Amino acid sequence: MFQRKRTGSILCPSCGRLTGVADEVCANCGRRNPGMWGLTSILGNAGRTVPFDQVVIGGTVFLYLCMLVVDPEGIGKGFSLFNLLPPSQESLLRFGASGGVPVWHFGRWWTLLSAGWLHGNLLHIAFNLSWLRMLAPEVAELFGPSRMVILFTVSSAFAFLLTSTLGRFYLFGGAQLTVGASAAILGLLGALVWYGRATGSRLVGGQAWSWALGCIVFGFFFPMVDNWGHLGGFAGGYVAAHFLDPRRPERPAHTAGAILCLVATVAAIVLSLVVPLPR
Hints:
With 279 residues, the chain is mostly helical. It has eleven helices and two strands. Strands 1-2 form a two-stranded antiparallel ribbon.
């Protein structure tokens, strides 16, 4: 299934039309090396078979448990009814929390990628996972599983860049320290809103709008919610959806992009663990 194809025809990863796997240039769109060194067929199979939505959900659970195990003495700090089993602040920083302090004061810019996979307490991760379990498969069905991962990553990174920058300059309530998949969840909702507008599906677009507005309004009534992260995530997902047009079939290039997103996220978490925190 995952063997490199060196002869015959393939679908060009850029235009989706038939071209020779050994061609130097696609005759239809002009893409150089459409065969991608024999990897196009492998990426195409991976895009259809790898459960990217489960990778995202499983990864967030694994990292939450790791943060608790790494610093068990800090778990009880700040405990309350709405703050069950919170990882310590040092653990959050070590694994890649984002915000004005880590990004701008400590120079840990890579946390824009890692923060969306981390969570601040049990209620936080349970709430976000319930949304991910509902939205990730739906977005993967409409956009393709690879494009879902790209949307998740891009919208999350843009959200944390926005709220971290506002937090750096103490503008409009930007965050000094922030984590959570809710920014990417709003990004997936933004992508569904774009899908509804682009395809004329009022059911999808209307439902996504109502969920997004509900999440944003919810944030203004509860403390510790990063509202700029939510707004940035929605905007990032909406714009990214325009460039990942779901009206066209998902291609191997999208799968390559999804894999790069996951690799970059893992690298960001490793960097956070390896680079010492300033004292």
